[in-house]
Design brief:
Strand content: 15-25%
InterPro entries: Aldolase_TIM, BtpA, RibuloseP-bd_barrel
CATH architecture: Alpha-Beta Barrel
Order of helices and strands: HEHEHEHEEEHEEHEHEHEH
CATH superfamily: Aldolase class I
Mean pLDDT: 94
Protein name: GH15968
Strand order of the largest sheet: 1-2-3-4-7-9-10-11
Radius of gyration: 17 Å
Number of helices: 9
Number of strands: 11
Family: Belongs to the BtpA family.
Low-confidence stretches: none
CATH class: Alpha Beta
Largest sheet: 8 strands, parallel, barrel
Shape: globular
Length: about 280
C-alpha cells in the first residue's frame, strides 16, 4: 500500500481516466490515420489535465479482435510507446500515468512503461488461468516480476485484474474471489482490480464486500463506475478506473465527453468534501 500512496498520494478514492487510443497500424480496424491517433490522444490527455484527474491509463482498446501476447507485433509496442511518451509529456509530472496492452501484453506494457517513464501498468492473468474471448490466458506473475527486475523497472507498479471480465472462470470456480486476491498478494501484486462481467458493466457490491478492508494492497474498481454509483465504491476502493462513463452516451467506442468528465469530477469533489466535513 505504501508504494501506491507514495506515487498516487493520500487523496481518497483516486480517479484514473482511460485513453482508449484508436486502432493501431497492423490491426483490422486501422484507418491509416496514425497522426490523427496521436492528436486525439493529446487532446484527451489535455482534457484530463484541465479537469485535474488523479491518474491516466492508456490502452489499445480499439485493436479488436485481440490477440494473445505472443502474437502482438513490434508495431504495437512501438506505437504505444510513442503514444505513452506523448501523453506523459502533457500530464503534470505528479500525475501518475499507466499503460495496458491488450490482450495480455504485460511484458510489452512493462517495456513501454520503462521507456516512457510511466508509473504503472494494468496486467491480465496475473494469477490462475482462465478462458477469455481471445483464448486461454495462463498465469504470469512469476515471469512478469522477473522481467520487471531484468529491465530495471521495479518502480513501475503492476495492478492486476482478478477473475477478469469477458472471460470464463469455470476452471477456478472453487477458488473464491478473496482466495484469488490473497494469491495475488502472495505473488506480490501492487494492486488488485475487480470488474463487472463486461466493459462498462458495474462491479457487483458482493465482490466489493468480499475484498473491502481485507487486503494489504489497493483495491481498484475497474469497470462500470458512474457519477450515480461512485458513492457505492468511494469508501471501499483506493481508486476507480473510468472509461465508458467518460464517453458519449456511456459507450466506450465513442469520443470522450467533456461534460461527463466535468460532472463526475464535481461529484467526486463533493464526496471528498463531505468526508473532510
Amino acid at each position: 500500500m505504501q508504494r501506491f500512496l507514495r506515487i498516487f498520494g493520500e487523496q481518497k478514492c483516486k480517479i484514473i481516466g482511460m485513453i482508449h487510443v484508436d486502432a493501431l497500424p497492423g490491426t483490422p480496424k486501422y484507418a491509416g490515420n496514425w497522426q490523427q491517433i496521436i492528436e486525439k490522444a493529446k487532446f484527451e490527455a489535455d482534457l484530463y489535465k484541465r479537469h485535474k484527474l488523479d491518474a491516466v491509463l492508456i490502452e489499445n482498446m480499439h485493436d479488436i479482435p485481440y490477440v494473445q501476447d505472443r502474437l502482438l507485433g513490434a508495431e504495437i509496442v512501438a506505437c504505444m510507446t510513442i503514444l505513452s511518451q506523448t501523453v506523459r509529456r502533457i500530464l503534470p509530472k505528479e500525475t501518475p500515468c499507466g499503460v495496458q496492452v491488450l490482450a495480455c501484453g504485460n511484458r510489452q506494457a512493462l517495456a513501454i512503461a520503462k521507456a516512457s517513464q510511466l508509473q504503472f501498468i494494468r496486467a491480465e492473468g496475473f494469477v490462475y488461468g482462465h478462458v477469455a474471448d481471445e483464448g486461454y490466458t495462463d498465469a504470469c506473475a512469476g515471469d512478469l516480476l522477473r522481467y520487471r527486475r531484468q529491465i530495471d523497472a521495479d518502480d513501475v507498479l503492476i495492478f492486476t485484474d482478478l477473475k477478469k471480465k469477458h472471460s470464463s472462470h469455470a476452471i477456478t470456480a472453487d477458488v473464491s474471489l478473496l482466495e484469488t486476491a490473497h494469491a495475488a498478494e502472495f505473488f506480490l501484486t501492487d494492486g488488485i482490480i475487480i470488474t463487472g462481467t463486461a466493459t462498462g458493466h458495474a462491479t457487483s457490491a458482493q465482490d466489493v464486500q468480499q475484498l473491502a478492508g481485507k487486503l494489504k494492497v489497493p483495491l481498484i474498481i475497474g469497470s462500470g463506475v458512474t457519477k450515480e454509483n461512485i458513492k457505492d465504491y468511494f469508501d471501499a476502493a483506493q481508486a476507480v478506473i473510468i472509461g465508458s462513463h467518460f464517453k458519449e452516451k456511456g459507450n466506450w467506442a465513442k469520443d470522450i465527453c467533456e461534460d461527463a468528465v466535468e460532472q463526475f469530477t464535481r461529484e467526486i469533489c463533493e464526496l471528498r468534501l463531505r468526508l473532510k466535513g
